[in-house]
């Protein structure tokens, strides 16, 4: 019995979005399932001292160019969103609440739709009305979701999930853990495939 | 007439070393030549605020693991060196002097040998005696090289080269520029190949 693959991502991360369009198919090809974990890079960056990519001198402008080129290279629909980046706590906690109340499959469908809303349709996923519009498309009670995303239990779970993720070494997005083997970045997906095929590299 | 590919690397960068084992063959496959440019990441990091990978919390230990795994995945000889990282000014200026006095081909052969000395044989390339031993294997006058690496003209050229590189957007190692298109990282070599084949992505 193989363990699920752990997939960590921040809703404001372009490379996390790219990975979200491929991770399930990659896992399924090798008979594996995926557990999706929203994380908050802002919290991680307090420990690692990193800054959001576009704010880094010289590297920032390159990154914006690389987002576009990498999307084209992999044939993934993508439009640079505005504002970028943005706070993703509400989106992450909304997903946790959907997971808790409607199950993992619906939470993953919700997460994919949130990513599309931001990186394809250019909608501001920091706004409650964007998230509720996404929820309604999945027959999720929007008012209940907003209340749930903001209740103390969900906030506590988000905090605990972040501590667990960082204790497992998660420091970026996307971050994938297969059989305790950590992979950072969409550009490690080929190495992930080798690992899934052979159980080692 | 196509322009040479510009290849920027720091002698203490594992991913730069990995790239150095592949860049010439990749370019030759598409009828292109490569200009090798040693850079000093320490200078760049003063502008970008970055730190050497092993010193970054959480990301540091992952990086050491990723160096090893990436070397195995690409079947590149590699042994984590000690000390790591180290100052590469002397190695970089020695290469510039070799280029100036013995031509680009010998300078590239020298650079590849310096990388092997550090990342395969575990020799300390900060020490003059390591660099002179490498030079002697190429019939380069070791004493002249050391003097040349430390003269004001070479120091001035190094400074100018760094300013030029940063003005072109170089912020990491390896960094490759093809027809003004910038690529950062050994994990962009497949995109570089697509660019060389098609002239766009």
Automatic annotation (TrEMBL), chains A, B:
Residues 5-194 form the DSBA-like thioredoxin domain. SUPFAM superfamilies: Thioredoxin-like. It comes from the Bacteria. The active site is at 13 (nucleophile). It catalyses: 2-hydroxychromene-2-carboxylate = (3E)-4-(2-hydroxyphenyl)-2-oxobut-3-enoate. It holds the Pfam family DSBA. It is an enzyme of class 5 (isomerase). Its EC number is 5.99.1.4. One of its GO terms (biological process) is glutathione metabolic process. Keywords: Isomerase. One of its GO terms (molecular function) is glutathione peroxidase activity. Belongs to the GST superfamily. NadH family. It comes from Noviherbaspirillum cavernae. This is 2-hydroxychromene-2-carboxylate isomerase.
